[in-house]
What does this fold into?
Amino acid sequence: MKRIFLNRLFLLVVGCLAFLLSGCEKETYETDIVGLWELQAIEEDGENTYLPGEIPVMLLFEKNGVYRSNQENTLNNTNNVSPYFFGAWSVTDNKWLEMGIDSWKLSLSPLSSTNLKDQWISMHLPVRFTILELTAESMVLRIKSFVGDTKYAVMFSEPNLPLITEDNYDQVSEEFKTLCTYVYRFKRR
Amino acid sequence: MKRIRNIIIPLFVFAFAWQPALAQGFTVKGNVKDAHTGDALIGVSVVVKGGKTVGTMTDLDGNYSLKVPDPESTIVVSYIGYKKQEVPISHRSVVNISMEEEGVLVDEVVVIGYGVQKKESVVGAISSIDNKTLVSAPVTNLTQSLAGKIGGVQIVQSSGEVGRDEAEVYIRGMATYGDASPLIVVDGIVRSSFAQIDPNEVLSINVLKDASATAVYGIKGANGVIVVTTRRGKEGKAQVSASAQIAVTQPTRIPTALPAYESSLLYNQQMWGMMKESTYKALDIVMYKTHASPYTHPDEILIDRYMKDFSLQQQYNVNVTGGSDKVKYFVSTGVLMQDGFYNFDDITCFNRYNFRTNLDFDITDRLTAQVNIGSRIEQRNDPQGTMWNSWNVYHDAFAGSGRKYPFYNPDGSLSPASNIVGILSQSGIAKRTKSVLESGVVLRYDLSDWVKGLTLRGQVSYDNEGENTRVWTQAYDVYEYNFDRDQYTQKNVATSLDWGWESSTSDQRLYYEVGAEYNNEFGKHSLSGLFLANRNLRLLDTEFEFAEEGLVGRLAYNYDRRYFFEANVGINGSENFAKGSRYGVFPAFAAGWTVSNESFYQSSVLSGILSLLKIRASLGWVGNDKYKYGSDDSTYARFIYLQKYNYDSSGPVFGEGDNSLEVIRRDKLANTDVTWEVARKMNLGLETDFFNGLFGLTFDLFHEYRTNILTDISGIIPGYVGTEVMPANVGIVENKGFEIELRHNFAVNKDFNYYVKGNFTFNRNKVIKKADPLGLLPYQKEEGYPINTPLLYNTIGIFQDYEEIYNSPSQLTMQDNIEVLPGDLKYLDFNGDGIITEDDAYRQLYGSVPEIQYGVTVGASYKNFDMSVLVQGSAHASFEKNWEIIWPFNNHENAFERHWYWWTPELSADDVQHCRFHGRNYRNNQPVYGTTYSTGSGDYVRIKSVELGYSLPEAWVKKIGMGNIRFYFTSNNLFTWADEKYIDPDNRNNRGGYMPQTRAFNFGVNINF
It folds into this structure.
């Protein structure tokens, strides 16, 4: 009886230790996110809008807190092409990924000029994603945002800035007032 | 305890009991027993007073027999755990004695206004705190020692700065929106402060709360009275005590700015709101993140550079007490030394040297005298740049940007980021020395030979407070470095240390009183009375002399320690009021009934449970003549009834050119009808003890109605009148609440005992009438709300999208508001008119003085170890937050942790800690009136102090000729839990610029020789 009790006590202690130690080795997104990722899919309010066959979008997270975004197949500069966009990244509370991202906003009165540079203001803003999933193979990010804030930002390729005219001004303005939930799926390369 | 006494001590009884008395003479016998249980006490020491070798001990039945040299002798009866007694024999052959345990307080006296009273006779609401409790925690000033320890007292300590950490003290909250500070009395004299008195000098602090206790102070007693009594000598051998404490202190709850990476990104977010291009490009952000270029992209957390992790504090005290039957003395000397909290600062220090001598003389059989001399020197040295307070340094340290300049330039010179280094180390020196003398002589002449119990008394006191300030000035070099051009631009030019200026102030007070006291018992009747006249003169620098005078009267009667009646009156005059309304009469009446002393009660079953049951009630009127100009201005109004004029050397210009004339201008229009505030106070109290002091409960219910409150009426004076006016007696405030004090102590066995003490105070006031500015809506006026209830918009959320904005009452109608975007604050449409305007702001939340404060102390001792923990809390208080402490990049260029959780559509409501970063428009989130969003909560629970002590074994200590040696460790402000996460909840500066309270770890030793 005594032996059975001691054995069970031993197993209980070992079990508790294993649980505690496993907790000590909990992985953090900040270390796991480091590496090269290829965009696989973009969902907008649940609808997949990323067409297959496009030039792959690559995202490199460096350990020093810098990321690079490039539409080429490689980021090795072997073809002497510099990364298009870069910025800094961070993870907060093991929950959110922040990235400084180039984006463009409509100026106060875009119709007063026909010059693209006067119609759009260039900015570099913090963008916060929720990390839905991060494993050795895949990463899923979500962001609820106004359409214009995403469409005219490097998420994760260079945006197409339209010249604002009387015809499209209302539509573009409305894009900055319409919310959409985006989900980005990546595969580790 | 009793068991050991009953077994061991009798072994010694036979040795002593048979010893004959050494002197022939009168034989006295008797029995000694426990006053409550009636048990015989064995081994009680019975000796003749003054006769060292004449004594005996009680036998197994508690009997003693002693031959004394003189039938007029006095015997001294003492026994461990019981209060010592001196009993005159008075020719009696049988003297039986009942001894009270030391925990029972029946004969304890309580300090009241202008005197003392037996605790059982007190019918006013008075709470006390003793010396042991005061010295238990390493406080730097006495105001801090009251927190959580005494019912009816609310403490708000807004600053922890060295030498400027005096807390605000309120008794039963605020009952006026004028000056609500209580009257301070030290050793019977009204004084301006008690904060810097050495706690080791203090015997007790008594807080007088209701009118019966404070009426004798008449025109000054309306806000309650704090009576500080310093220690006095006792007859006996000189007892020397020494204590030494060293504390390591650290500031708590310092706002810490975000690092450069985060703050630069957020700064761009702010620029977006202003529709401007981002200040920081992607490369800048990367440079901040990687720290690749510290000179072009520095990342300094300035507060970490400037604030020390720890600072040192030391306190020492030596005191001697003793005396003979003719002269008794208490002498104390103490020193407090505090270092500053800033790095680069070798100048800041606060040193306080306290001296006190209290002497009691029995000059003749009838004439006694007391000489009280309390003095101290307060020395504070500061860098010249922080001589008034370190607000600018502390504030710039946490709010200043660490992104713009490296802390030091490449050549080691000071940059604009290290400007504070210059202020702290190279801006010059300010040395201030304050000398304080508080002295007094009290004479009492016993006239019992003519009228039994009658005593004449007179007192003269002279106080002198002088402060001398000497300043040396200096300037320091600051260079701005341009990395691209490798070029230094000088921003500030250094000068050498040079003499600046000197100033001195002087504040002298002369107080005198004459009067008579009467105390007598006629069988079961006990009568006491007091009548005195007093006058107080004060000379403050070049100010016109201050003068006050008054009459004080008290009559107290009790029948058989069961029925108590008391009447008090104060008649005072104030310089603030014109003849005809200069003097006021402030009476108070109180009654009490000690039910537990009734014979019917003592024979009831209840007496075994409720050993003390006392009910008391009081009603009285007290006054207040103080009026302060504005909440931050420390200037008090004088001669309110007199029209004043001011000289202006540069007055109006007549004609052409710069021909300003010297003129005499009329000051604010005088109020010739002004008079004092009157507070009618009622109090109902219940005092109980359960199971002979095992548990105790005191409960007080109070109500105050204050009228004629001196009020600033400029808001109701139309502008076309063209002048400002002095305050008028138009205000009315009601204040009510209750206090509970609980206590429990228990000796488990001879080695282990514990105690629990708790207090809880609740008060709520209401402004009945005030001169609210014209144009305010009823719910915006202060009338009907507690004092200082803020006028706010009620923030009910954050707009999540444009649809919500369109479907909500329009906020574009708010003053100066130009747009509303998702992420902006959303307000309650209080009046339901469909738009948000200034009419939707209403009085809500709480004022700055908490309505609730409480404290619980748990203590225990086991053999030579002792411990105690005080948990203190506060609730129902609010404070304004503005500028840098809530808004990012406001006035300075920093953002803080809460701003990193800024609103985006992605974040849930639970995760958002800050609204949208407004740029072009700030009026939506920072409207003219404040908002509940920007109002901080003053609620908290704090582990206020923890103490662990160890006393060396008596046997060891006696071997080296000492009486007692105790080592201890204490900690102050160990942890705080509060709704307010980023600054101290007691903070009352809307920019968070006061240095917060400190956490202290203190090691000390007490030695009794």
About this structure: Strands of chain A lie at 35-44, 47-48, 58-61, 66-70, 85-92, 96-106, 120-134, 138-146, 179-188.
